[in-house]
């Protein structure tokens, strides 16, 4: 990810600064038993600093093999400390030959793989340091250095994790903004062309009557659906759908859809099932009351519950009709309405009075 770039550059600077620090410590000490081996170690550190800086600058190389080699080279340089310094210098608590350079792989693991990897690599380096300096008389010195390494691995990994999350959110925000701008552009274009044509077809169809009236009704339904589709309000959260937009597609000259001013956000699957159940109820209205029959759809949200009511002014449902239909294998209401809601844990209530119409009430917890 792009956010990792500054961290890798910071680690490269840290390696170089730590290398210089280790060389200065090596130069000022005169009591080492094997100073030539010590300078050889400094040379290895310098070569690896250059190689690691180049390797980590290429994103495809930031993988387990490079991280493992980085840790192994660091451990090798660290474990030479007792042979270079000698028992007396070790017991006095002298800084290890690589000095602070040993923290570089810990930072690399933390940046690449997060807190756990950073803490694990810190534990490995700390174990090597404890072994190489086991003769130090002041145990507090080793404990402090071990704690600092572990904290560095955990904290850097945590910081990188937070930075990556922030980058992902910024990327999503940028994509949503671009999509919103494109949606606004399409809305303008569609409003100036398609919506006006559909409105004209709807109006002329009603005026002409007959088959043209049915064509006008269909054009009106498509106009309402398309108008809702290209509306330029803020997009809902990922994985959710505003139920109002799905219900609006059922609107027509004979069907009035009333929804709240605020979004009715539901999981995508639940919203689609509710809209399909409403569609099935309206199909029943058209089938039993005629295509021109009036119907009303009312959506409400109260105390965490979404309620959608479909009401008509048809002849009503005779008592026992639904049970008889289910027994005869006609499962429209049982499956298309009640079945859908049962799968989501919702409820369906059907109230019908002969001669006074039918009311289907669908309730679902949001």
Please explain how this structure is put together.
It holds the Pfam family DUF5931. This is Signal transduction histidine kinase. GO terms for molecular function: kinase activity. The chain is of the alpha+beta class. The protein has 3 domains: about 5-170; about 195-230, no CATH class; about 235-365, Heat Shock Protein 90 (2-Layer Sandwich), CATH 3.30.565.10. The protein is about 65% helix and about 10% strand. It is built from 12 helices and 7 strands. The protein has helices spanning about 5-30, 35-55, 65-80, 80-90, 105-130, 140-190, 195-210, 210-230, 245-250, 270-290, 320-325, 330-345, and strands at about 240, 255-260, 265, 295-300, 305-310, 345-355, 355-365. The strands form 2 sheets. A 5-stranded mixed beta sheet has the order 2-4-5-7-6. Strands 1-3 form a two-stranded antiparallel sheet. Helix 2 (about 35-55) runs antiparallel to helix 3 (about 65-80), helix 3 (about 65-80) packs parallel to helix 5 and helix 5 runs antiparallel to helix 6. The protein is elongated, with a radius of gyration of 36 Å. The chain starts with a helix and ends with a strand. The model has no long low-confidence stretch (mean pLDDT about 80).
Q: Name the helix and strand elements from N-terminus to C-terminus, one letter apiece.
A: HHHHHHHHEHEEHEEHHEE
Write out the strand line-up for the largest beta sheet, numbering strands in chain order: 2-4-5-7-6
Q: In percent, how helical is the residue content?
A: 55-70%
Separate helix tally: 12
- What does the average pLDDT come to? 82
Summarize the biggest pleated sheet. Answer: 5 strands, mixed
End-to-end gap = 36 Å
**Unreliable parts:** none
Radius of gyration: 36 Å
């Amino acid at each position: 990810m792009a956010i990792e770039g500054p961290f890798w550059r910071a680690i490269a600077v840290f390696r170089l600064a730590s290398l210089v620090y280790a060389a200065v410590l090596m130069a000022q000490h005169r009591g080492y038993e094997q100073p030539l081996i010590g300078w050889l170690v400094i040379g290895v550190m310098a070569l690896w600093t250059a190689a690691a800086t180049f390797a980590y600058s290429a994103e495809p190389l930031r993988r387990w093999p490079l991280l493992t080699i980085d840790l192994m080279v660091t451990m090798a340089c660290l474990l030479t400390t007792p042979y270079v310094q000698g028992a007396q210098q070790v017991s006095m608590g002298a800084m290890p030959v690589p000095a602070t350079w040993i923290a570089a792989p810990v930072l690399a693991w933390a940046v690449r793989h997060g807190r756990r990897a950073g803490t694990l690599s810190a534990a490995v380096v700390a174990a090597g340091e404890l072994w190489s300096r086991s003769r130090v008389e002041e145990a507090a010195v080793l404990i402090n250095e071990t704690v600092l390494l572990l904290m560095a691995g955990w904290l850097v990994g945590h910081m990188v994790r937070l930075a990556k999350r922030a980058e992902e959110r910024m990327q999503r925000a940028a994509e949503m903004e671009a999509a919103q701008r494109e949606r606004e552009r399409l809305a303008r274009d569609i409003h100036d062309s398609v919506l006006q044509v559909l409105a004209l077809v709807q109006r002329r169809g009603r005026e002409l009557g007959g088959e043209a009236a049915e064509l006008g009704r269909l054009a009106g339904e498509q106009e309402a659906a398309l108008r809702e589709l290209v509306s330029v309000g803020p997009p809902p959260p990922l994985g959710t759908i505003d139920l109002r937009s799905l219900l609006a597609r059922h609107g027509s000259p004979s069907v009035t859809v009333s929804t709240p001013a605020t979004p009715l956000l539901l999981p995508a699957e639940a919203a689609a099932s509710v809209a399909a159940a409403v569609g099935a109820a309206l199909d029943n209205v058209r089938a039993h009351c005629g295509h021109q029959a009036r119907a009303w759809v009312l959506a409400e949200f109260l105390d965490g519950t979404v309620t959608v009511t479909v009401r008509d002014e048809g002849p009503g449902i005779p008592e026992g009709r639904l049970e008889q239909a289910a027994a005869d294998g006609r499962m429209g209401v049982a499956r298309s309405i009640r079945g859908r809601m049962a799968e989501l844990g919702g409820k369906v209530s059907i109230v019908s009075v002969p001669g006074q119409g039918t009311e289907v009430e669908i309730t679902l917890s949001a």
